[in-house]
Design brief:
The complex is a heterodimer of chains A (560) and B (548). With 560 residues, chain A is α/β, with parallel strands linked by helices. Chain A has helices at 3-8, 17-27, 30-62, 71-117, 128-140, 143-169, 171-219, 221-227, 230-283, 291-306, 308-330, 390-397, 419-425, 440-445, 453-462, 466-471, 489-503, 519-532, and strands spanning 351-358, 366-374, 379-383, 403-409, 412-413, 426-429, 438-439, 479-480, 507-511, 537-542, 553-556. Chain A is built from 18 helices and eleven strands. Chain B has helices at residues 7-13, 17-49, 59-109, 112-157, 159-206, 208-213, 219-242, 244-269, 275-316, 374-382, 404-408, 425-429, 438-447, 472-485, 502-517, 529-534, and strands at 334-341, 351-358, 363-367, 389-394, 397-398, 411-414, 490-494, 521-525, 537-540.
Amino acid sequence: MSAHDVAQWQTPQGGYSSVMRLMPWITAEWRRLLLAIFLGALALACGVGLMATSAWLISRAAQQPPILELEIAIVAVRAFGIGRGVLRYAERLVAHDSAFRALSRLRLAVYDRLAIIAPAGVPAYRRGDLLERMVRDVDAIQDLPLRVIVPYVSGIVVCVGSVILAWMMLPAAGLVLLVSLLLSALLVPLMTARAAADAECASAHARGQLNAEALGLVDGLGELLLTGANAQWLSRIEAADRDVSRLRLRSARASSFAASLGVLLSGGAVVAMLLVAIPAVRAGQLDGVNLAVLVLLPLATYEAVSIMPAAALSLGRVRGSAERVVGVLQAPDLVPAPAHPAAAPAGIPELVLRDVQSSWPGGAPVRLAGDVRIGPGSRVGIVGSSGVGKSTLLAALAGFLPYQGSMTLDGVEIRELNGADVRRIVGWCPQLPHIFDSSIVENVRLARPESTDDDVRIAMGKVGLGEWIDSLPLGMDTHVGDQGGQISAGQRQRIGVARVLLAGHPIVLLDEPTEHLDEINADEVARQLLRALDGRTVVWVAHRPHGLVELDHIVPISRD
Amino acid sequence: MAGPVDVRLVHFAFGVRKYLIAYVAVSAVTAILVVAQAFTLGALIPRVFLGGEDLDTLRSALILLAAVVLGRVVMAGLGDLIATTAAVKTSSQLRTSLLRKVVQLGPVWLSAERRTSVATLATRGIESIEPYVARYIPSLIIAVVVPLTVGVAILTQDLLAAVIVAFTAPLIPVFMILIGKYTQAATAKQWSTLNTLAGHFLDVVAGLPTLKAFGRENAQQKRMIEIDDRYRTTTMGVLRISFLSSFVLELLATVSVAVVAVSIGLRLIGGHLDLKTGLTVLILAPEVYLPIRMVGTHFHAAADGMSAAEDVFGVLEQAGPINGVRRDVPCAALSVRNVSAGYPDRAELALAPVTFVAEPGRITAITGPSGCGKSTLLAVLEGFLAPTTGSINVGVVDVRELDRDAWLANLAVMQQDPALLGPTIGDDIRLGRPDVPLAAVIQALRSVGLDADELVLGAATPVGDVRSDVSAGQRRRISLARVLLSPAPIILLDEPTAGLDEAGETVAIEVIRRLAQTGSVVIVVAHRPALIAAADTVIALEPVQVTA
């Protein structure tokens, strides 16, 4: 994580348009969403009903009527008392179910888009931590229905109900409640969200700075200690920390003000209610039994509006994630499929590179000047110092990157072909191929799903992993990847080659397959891999010509 | 997680004790105002409803009510401000303490595996502690102060209501803990399934380029839908159970209020109670449960902060390395006597015993097959890892007697995979010695074969944003340039020519020779023949004997 990223993930830029763009996925589950809102409103209404009915019951009881007259009220009070908890439980379950279903759709949409644009269109593919964050962003969207829409809308429904109830008893009281609730439901959440956004905005730069310095300390601890710069670095962190604290404390006042405004609005409504209701009782416009009901209504309804500032804060938090998710959904395809794709050449095509230039978005370009002809079945090494862009060149050859110049397969330009067709011909073995969280056999078999266990075993043997497999108690069924056992970088690379062997690509791109081995092993593995790939075209990139003695031809590559 | 509160954090958060006292005081005033509001309202309503009084005779009561409301407004703002201030100060202090501790523990402790988690902890982790201190801890304080005060107030009015409240309110935490205990086992297993499923999406997304390479990206779609369905069903199963505790909480809170209300109503009919008392108690009753319910609300928001706090204290409680006090380091040969070493979390040794003397003015090469402990030896020499056996002396002084910073000031080190801190390459070369003139920096860059044409902006080339644009080989050469500028008499280089082409290797070896000629002790870890050939002394490390 670099300073730049840290600063970026904290401040959403635009308004709420990204949130609105995600709404179709949320409302796709509209039946469940409406049910959740309905249940939530009922639960809140039970709370209001409990206080209102109790106030009426007690007031009426003070007039000592026959007990039968109070039966209904007593039953209602008990029903409201039980109903609240039950309805709230149901609401939470339905709301979560609806949110998860919506999220499921969204996740699929993100995957579909990624499947088209990956890896060139997504900067995250160059950085593991960004990828993880992207996945977390998609998950964070569940807060939109759960913590924003359901609580806010059901709260509004109950507010409207309370106002109608008060208005029916005394129109002026309805008006008092309307004003109080309107301000509580709109102004207070707005102010809270604004205060938080301002705090975020004011301190975003300072926080980005602080986090960057903290990360620098962790990333470069060895360098800092060894150069004696650690004390100076720590005092820089402390200075950045003081800046952040000062800005945070300044904006804390705004949020405290919003908090006290909420209390003022509900308390003020009680006083105002008394001021309109007392003369009304005297004037006979309001039945005295209802006075307590009216006075307690603002306090009871307060629960419905008290969750609204939190909803506004959640909305602010969701916004950042929404922006990044929409960013993925709208990211352009940097390697668009041709309108009229050319027919893919058959057999082992001849690969010709002419003045090729390509780059990852935002990265330094790689250039390969002149003509390079790679005939069917030949083995070519591309050698250049580290950082010159050899891996970039291979990604372009696999149809993952746009390029200038010309790269042809039997005379057909790669960009004229469908990406899928290119990758049926060109097998790409990146430096660190992804190992899925699954068994070894499944990890290799994905290259050709119809292959048998024996096919996989043979491929693994050919890349020199046979002994390793035999040494494992579970053999090829050993679980590897994140949740399973770890494997070395060298083994990872050779699993990548085994996949290509199994898939049977006529042209194979190898990215420093012996990089993680020491010299003696490297030569041995190089020989083994070339034997295994006998009869196919091999393009092998490396930063030193070592271990490439068996190649037909070596092409140097440099920055210029 | 140990319990609902991390005592260390409370101690830390309110280490400045005035915040804790201030918050308790605000809570107590709030509780009194809540009671005052109920009493005022309870008295006022019957005077209108039964007594038929009008605004003019009720003026003083209304003014009192308005004053109470204003008091609550002030307390709400004040409480929020105190809590936020405490939270900001806590996170700031925790961050500083954490990073100081990390510096003290050193790079061997901060291994590659720990690096990401510590980085996350120092940034997002510590930020997530703020809601814990600003919301959760205050809600706990209120949940103790307000229900107790209100409960006593109810007791002064109506014994029966007080008994109902006194029975039910403590039941809420008791039931929550009981249900929590009961459901823990049931949910634990489901959570682990859940984590596996949650990781799956990341796994598939991360592997998309690989899937595309084999044309398998569309086949994964169906699997994703299946897995999402399973994910949802499992999660809902967990939630049905884990929502039970808040269900009980809500149910008890509202049912109790209903029971109190009905009992008041029935006694009013019988004439055993007056309206004033009845209304006061009705208004007070929900105030007992509200703060307890708020704890539940904030508990979930604070969960992240709680586990982050746990992790931070886990680091802070680590025992630091023992540091010597001597600061005068003699300028002499470095003798390594029977030194072996291992890492704290691994049983076997990483470095078998080795003995050698590295003389000033000579290049001492350390060789051996991978995994025999070459980098471990350097970590021991740097003082980041304590030797298991043996000792290291510089001249006659045992390195253990030296202060770590004083010892490190005598070393110039190039690590195997040097990090760049930026903002520019020039800053990295001047790290720790910002007074070095730019001309010297550029000269050093030239000597290691890094010229302006290779780095677009020369010494002013920024690093950091796209870190991969400065390759590993270039980073090593930048680090070598820094070593070149350092006046330190002991030089440690970890595979200085790895990742370089032959021309680069020749340049680097020439630089290393010149360093030795100035009279420095030069120790290089080497496995390429050209570098080994350039050394005056070659120490071949023995592979570690693995005992079964």
